[in-house]
Amino acid sequence: MFNLNALVRTNIRTLKPYSSARDEFKGEANIFLDANENSLGSPLVKWYNRYPDPLQLKVKEKIAFIKKIPVDQIFLGNGSDEAIDLLYRCFCEPGIDEVVIFPPTYGMYEVSANINNVKLNRVPLTEQFQLDLEALEQAIKPSTKIIWICSPNNPTGNSIDKEAIEMILNNFDGLVVIDEAYINFSRQKSWLSDLQDYPNLVVLQTLSKAWGLAGIRLGMAFASSEIIGYLNKVKPPYNISEPVQELAIKALDEIGQVNDMIVILVNERQNLVTSLLQQKEVLKIYPSDANFLLVKFKDALGLYKYFVDQGIVVRDRSNVLLCEGCLRITVGTPQENSKLLESLNSFNQ
Ligand SMILES: Cc1ncc(COP(=O)(O)O)c(C=O)c1O
User: Fold this and answer.
1) Which of 150, 254, 271, 325 has the highest local Cβ count within 10 Å?
2) Could you give phi then psi for residue 147, rounded to 5 degrees?
3) Residue ranges lining ligand 1, Cβ < 6 Å
4) Domain 256-346, architecture per CATH
5) Does CATH place domain 4-18+53-253 in 2.40.30.20?
6) Ligand 1, residues 75, 78, 81: which to mutate, most atoms within 8 A of Cβ?
7) In a mutational test of the pocket of ligand 1, which residue from 110, 154, 158, 329 has the highest number of ligand atoms less than 8 Å from its CB?
8) In terms of DSSP bridges, do strands 119-122 and 98-101 run parallel, antiparallel, or are they unpaired?
9) Domain ranges of the chain
10) pLDDT digit string (tens) for 1-34?
11) Is pTM beyond 0.90 here?
12) pLDDT digit string (tens) for 217-260?
C-alpha cells in the first residue's frame, strides 16, 4: 500500500519551512517595508526591486489551464533539474534509501543521487530500449524510494511502453517519476491525465524543449497536492525569478506558436532521417519520439571530431551502454540540418 507519510524523510515531514515576508502578508498594500528590499529600485531596471511570488501563482494558473491540472498539483523549479534534486531531498534518506534508473537514460538522475548520497540501482533497458520488468523486480528493495522513468527517453529517443509503466505504478509502493521532457514531440499520450489514478505518480515536464525556453530555466513537476506540498516546503523561497515568471506567463499565452514549432521540428526530424538513411556512414537510426536522433555510425568518434572541426557539435554517446558507436543529434533548423548533412557528405572523401 502506498503511504506517502511513510515515504517522506522524517526531517522533511516535521520540517518547519521558511516563511517569507511575501508568504505572511496576503492582501493589498501600497507600501512594502517587510522584506528588506531596496525601496528605491535598481538604477538599471526599477521594477525588479521586489521579491517574486514564492509560489508563482500566475504562472501556475496558466499551466493549470493548459494542462488541466489543479494549481496545487503543480510545482515549478529552476529547470526540471531542481525538481529531480528536491525529490531526492524529500524522499531519500542519504546513505540508507535507494532508487532505480534504467540506463542509458538522462544523466541527472545519477548525478543527483550521488550529490544526495543515495544508492542507485541500474536496471539496463532491453535491446529494444524498453523496461526489463524481471530485472526490475530483482532490483527493488524495501529501501527503494523512487523509480526514474524517462519517456521519451534521452538518449535513445523512444517512448517507454505504457503497459510496463502501468505495471510498475500498480505494484511499486514508492514514487514513480516519469520524465516527459520530450513529450510534445511524441505520438504517445502524456501521463498527466493518469495523475488522479496513481498517488505514487510524479510527472516532470519543462519549458526547455518544445517551448524553446531552455535559457529561462523553468521545469514543472505534477503530482498529488501532498507530494507537491513537500517539494514546496523544501525549495528555496524564491526559486523562480520575477523576469522568468513574466516570460513564462507571456510564453504560455503562445501555445499556438509552440504547436507550429513542434510541427516544424517533427517534420524536420523526418527529413533528417530520410537524408541520413542515404549516407554510407550511417549504420542505423533509432526511431525517435523526441527532438533528437540517436544514430549509429561506422566511425562515430572520427565523425564527432570531424563535425567539431567544422564547427558542429553533436553529443558523443559512443561509450554509453547500448549506444556503442552512436551520436545523438538534436534536430536543428532546416539550415543547420543541411550543414550537418553537407559535412557528413564530405567526411572520408
Ligand atoms: C530527460 C530530460 N529531463 C530533464 C532535462 C532537463 O530539463 P530542464 O532544462 O528543465 O532542467 C533534460 C535536458 O536535457 C532531459 O533530457
Assistant:
1) 150
2) -115, 120
3) 79-81, 106, 150, 154, 179, 181, 206, 208, 214, 219
4) Alpha-Beta Complex (3.90)
5) no
6) 81
7) 154
8) parallel
9) 4-18+53-253, 256-346
10) 899 999 999 999 999 999 988 788 878 899 999 9
11) yes
12) 999 999 999 999 999 999 999 999 999 999 999 999 999 999 99
